[in-house]
Design brief:
The chain has 133 residues and is mainly alpha-helical. It has a domain of 50 residues. 66% of the residues lie in helices and 0% in strands.
């Protein structure tokens, strides 16, 4: 009877640790009541950041596929105002190039494997692999 109780407690602790481990951390704080003004917009550093991204081969090829020439891109960049340039540079910082789809697949597979192991442990089933003679 004591062993059964220990199994339930250990399963509960495993599930609780998994739930606590996968929840994201949230850092809450006070939000300002007025809109924040972007007074320190540095156009030259933002343009440099945008040009570094545009120099990447993958980005150049993708823009070429859309039909943009390098002259058209430079012309469009020069026509943008400071706020638009800054917003574009900020968006480039948040851009995820490769994505992380495989990481989610891996996490789900690990959780399924842990669930199967916990199921076999709780029910008392054993997996025995025998070699044929």
């Amino acid at each position: 009877m004591k062993l059964s109780w220990m199994k339930w407690v250990s399963c509960y602790l495993v599930v609780a640790m998994v739930v606590l481990g996968i929840t994201p951390r949230l850092y809450a704080g006070f939000s300002p009541s007025e809109a924040i003004s972007l007074s320190t917009v540095d156009r030259s550093s933002d343009l440099e950041k945008i040009r570094k991204v545009l120099e990447m081969k993958m980005v150049r090829e993708r823009l070429k596929d859309f039909g943009f020439t390098p002259n058209e891109i430079e012309k469009k960049l020069s026509s943008l105002d400071d706020q638009q340039i800054h917003q574009l540079a900020l968006n480039l910082d948040t851009l995820k190039v490769g994505g992380n789809g495989w990481a989610w697949v891996l996490v789900i597979l690990i959780l399924v494997a842990i669930g199967v192991i916990v199921y076999f442990y709780v029910t008392g089933h054993r997996v025995v692999i025998e070699r044929e003679k």
